[in-house]
Amino acid sequence: MTDLLRPRAIGAPLERLDGPDKINGTARYAFEHPVPDPLYVHPVQATIARGRIEDIDVHAAEDLDGVATVLTHENAPRLATGSDAELWVLQSPEIAFRGQLIGAVLAETPEIARQAADLVRVDYRREPHHVVLRGDDDALYAPEVVNPSFAADTRDGDPDGAEPAVVVDATYTTPMEHNNPMEPHATIATWRGGVLTMYDSTQGVHQMRSRLAPVLGLDPERIRVLAPHVGGGFGSKGTAHAHNALAALAARVAGGRPVKLALTRQQMFALVGYRTPTIQHVRLGADRDGKLELVTHDVVEQTSTVQEFAEQTAVGTRTVYAAPNRRTTHRLAALDVPVPFWMRAPGEAPGMFATESAVDELAEACGIDPIDLRCRNEPAVDPATGLPYSARHLAECLREGAERFGWAGRDPAPRSARDGDWLVGTGVASATYPGYKMPGSTATVRYRDGRYEVRIGAADIGTGTRTALTQIAADALDRPVSDVDLELGDTALPTATVEGGSSGLTSWGTTVVEAARRFREKFGHDPADGDEADGAMPEEPDEQRYAIHSFGAHFAEVRVNADTGEVRVPRLLGVFSVGRVVNPRLVRSQLLGGITMGMSMALFEHSVLDPQFGHVINHDLAQYHVAAHADVADIEVSWLDEHDPHSNPMGSRGVGEIGIVGSPAAIANAVHHATGIRVRDLPITPDKLL
Ligand code: MOS
């Protein structure tokens, strides 16, 4: 690949360029943009899980002082196409899940809008609903593909006929979980002169525009989306959701006034996607030396009746372990529930919990150390594609982690260590995540007043994109970081792909390097004012020649209270292979965050769906516990010193998601080591240990 880059800024632990703005409050998030004379929107949501609105009475709401309009399916503007069912809001009286948007109040203050929304009276015709995922549901079906475009099923050899000497056969389950970024989903929409302008909290301004445009019947050029700062997303802001369409409809009727819509935390639990619950049947078979002969991973999960989203739960298993006999399958139940969507490492996060727990069970059954067993099963080429890996350093991660963690000399017997009332155990698990690169971005470089302006409509969702991409641009232009001004987060800038699948910096960085290369080709090192060049992301033949994945090894120490079952996690360590690290400060932060979220998944997160009413009852941060500082003790991360020659011009790979992959299994395996109890059902709550 290109040797254009001389890494100087790349590799430096630069502080976030927008850090001071964020600390002093001048960095504006979606809802904070000053707009003149706004109206505030409060949604009305369905209170049944399936049926139809027979009558909707808005008189009391409309009569409230300060209410401008109440929108329902009876008076809302018509959307241009019904082909995007999740965004088909206020177009019909049908109810497909509890919490569905059925109306909206526009008012002079948020308080009035909320009060009026409570005054809307709805008569429903209820129909029976199905909201509980069951492995034996008659209506399970095989999707055509799983997210984003993997085959639903794979098969090698004879997975049903194989008879290995040692077999582990177990079912693992993970619950429904919800993304809870610090900044709730929010939009300001203004529809004036046939142009819709939105300040939105999104992981992709261009994706927001391209999905909304056909629904609204607008030429994409007539929509502008801005998102200069975003307070987290974890996947939930990776696309438009129903509230974005609702905000646009509200703006349509607001007579040119801006409308402001901020979802409440409780509303987010019905409207912005979530991780599907999974039921995963895993069989691993090996010879007495622990060499795998059989791997099957059969997944049951849910989608909605509104729109299909098929999580790729077994896809990580396809690349991490080879065996002559393998099978992976995905089966879906379409339930009367909200549409599931991306949540940090969709697929790999729940899937590798099952696989890496099963590998621990297999190691125990074989009487082999779980690190040894993993190293004995390192494949020479990618078992999913047959391609060589650009860099598969999983065994190095495991060995270096073992060294740092102090794994040697561990007594593998469960319940072998006790400290007073606390049972102490350690566990390990592997992580893998694909090195996605999304085609379709462009960038421009312009020279003016001694400075280089780099423009690309990328997203910084709190990850530090603005800083890392500036470092990449500086090296590509062979200039110091202080000479580069990066602009992002606006559809008025060149098109950028979504911040998703840990693909952002790879995709945009490659694009910026290409624009810089063209700029330097045209203007050399001594450009004149106004010189400008653009670049599109080049075709990368290496992507077809190599399997590009990141890897990692997680180590956990847990203490389980023998009387109460309380689990504490005094120590977590992750060692990763992620290619060259563009900014160690930011990468460390991403990996720490991913591992913390993995701990949260292991011990806490569980959206409890009420089967009778069909909604998530613990729909706020008081009841849905996300790991907080008090839960986290010592987390250490490190990475191998490497450079992936095939991934991108920076030699880097994505880091946003791999931290959450495998960390729940490392904790579950440590809990088993501490207690002798194998918890196959997340989260690992105290009742499961008594
Ligand atoms: Mo990530 S779940 O692709 O934002």
Automatic annotation (TrEMBL):
<keyword id="KW-0500">Molybdenum</keyword>
<dbReference type="Pfam" id="PF20256">
    <property type="entry name" value="MoCoBD_2"/>
</dbReference>
<dbReference type="InterPro" id="IPR037165">
    <property type="entry name" value="AldOxase/xan_DH_Mopterin-bd_sf"/>
</dbReference>
<keyword id="KW-0560">Oxidoreductase</keyword>
<protein>
    <submittedName>
        <fullName>Xanthine dehydrogenase family protein molybdopterin-binding subunit</fullName>
    </submittedName>
</protein>
<dbReference type="InterPro" id="IPR008274">
    <property type="entry name" value="AldOxase/xan_DH_MoCoBD1"/>
</dbReference>
<dbReference type="InterPro" id="IPR036856">
    <property type="entry name" value="Ald_Oxase/Xan_DH_a/b_sf"/>
</dbReference>
<dbReference type="InterPro" id="IPR000674">
    <property type="entry name" value="Ald_Oxase/Xan_DH_a/b"/>
</dbReference>
<dbReference type="InterPro" id="IPR016208">
    <property type="entry name" value="Ald_Oxase/xanthine_DH-like"/>
</dbReference>
<dbReference type="InterPro" id="IPR046867">
    <property type="entry name" value="AldOxase/xan_DH_MoCoBD2"/>
</dbReference>
<dbReference type="Pfam" id="PF02738">
    <property type="entry name" value="MoCoBD_1"/>
</dbReference>
<dbReference type="Pfam" id="PF01315">
    <property type="entry name" value="Ald_Xan_dh_C"/>
</dbReference>
<feature type="domain" description="Aldehyde oxidase/xanthine dehydrogenase a/b hammerhead">
    <location>
        <begin position="24"/>
        <end position="128"/>
    </location>
</feature>
